Amino acid sequence: MAADLTFYTNPMSRGQTVRWMLEELGVPYETVLLDYGTTMKGADYLAINPMGKVPAIVHKGNIVTEVAAICVYLAEAYPEAGLKPKGGALADYYRWIFFAAGPIEAAFADQAAGFIPPEDKQAMFGYGTFERATDTLEKAVAGKTYVAGDSFSAADVYVGSMINFLTTFGMLAPRPAFADYIAGITARPTFKRAKEIDEALIAQREAAAPA
């Protein structure tokens, strides 16, 4: 019997964020591993994601791509997991997920490419300046255990994964607010289990690679 939920990924990709989200759900899922430049660009997978990139999920025949969209979708598809907050916390939930997916993503992409918008063009860019975007991200988590309300949510999976990745690889300067926030959410058993799964897959692939 086919799984209701299929996860397409590469362990060395943003699929690690979706892996964490799936482990938080605690539901069965099938994993399909893809390789860059080969199966990821093959006709079978391009029929799922014409961009030829991972991650993607297929849930009961419905295709979802883009990490933020997948996290939001899964939180709604599996309400019993409690990963979508209620009440006033819902505002911060949507706000910070899409702030990270929009302005923060764009700011760091431009920064990595060595592009700095000229002062007279900053209004054309959703993040304004790199400094403004990162300062705003700091305010989003400063003094908080969770980014949206008083309980862990899909927003912490997405925003937390981004901050953790950027600080780990030196793309985001370490700040106490980031360190405190990340320390809390990455202590979760589900985060550790997701990392163990992907790290084991990476090790297997490296061991199988030609010398």
Give structural attributes:
211 residues, 4 strands, alpha+beta, 2 domains, 51% helix, 8 helices, Glutaredoxin, 4-stranded mixed β-sheet
Q: End-to-end distance, in Å?
A: 38 Å
Biggest sheet: strand arrangement: 2-1-3-4
Indicate the proportion of strand residues: 5-15%
What would you call the shape?
Answer: globular
Low-pLDDT residue spans: none
Q: What is the CATH fold-level name of the largest domain?
A: Glutathione S-transferase Yfyf (Class Pi), Chain A, domain 2
SSE order: EHEHEEHHHHHH
Oligomerization: single chain
Instruction: Estimate nothing, just give the exact number of structural domains.
Output: 2
Mean pLDDT: 95
Name of the level-1 CATH class of the largest domain: Mainly Alpha
Largest sheet: 4 strands, mixed
| Strand runs, count | 4
- C-alpha Rg, in Å? 18 Å
- Share of residues in helices: 40-55%
Summarize this structure briefly.
By secondary structure, the chain is of the alpha+beta class. The protein has helices at 15-25, 43-46, 67-77, 89-112, 130-141, 154-168, 176-185, 189-208; strands at 5-9, 30-33, 56-59, 62-65.
Explain this structure:
This protein is an alpha+beta fold. The chain folds into 2 domains: 5-81, 3-Layer(aba) Sandwich (Glutaredoxin), CATH 3.40.30; 89-190, Glutathione S-transferase Yfyf (Class Pi), Chain A, domain 2, CATH 1.20.1050. The chain contains 8 helices and 4 strands. Strands 2-1-3-4 form a 4-stranded mixed beta sheet, with helices on one face. α1 packs antiparallel against α6 (154-168) and α3 (67-77) packs antiparallel against α6 (154-168).
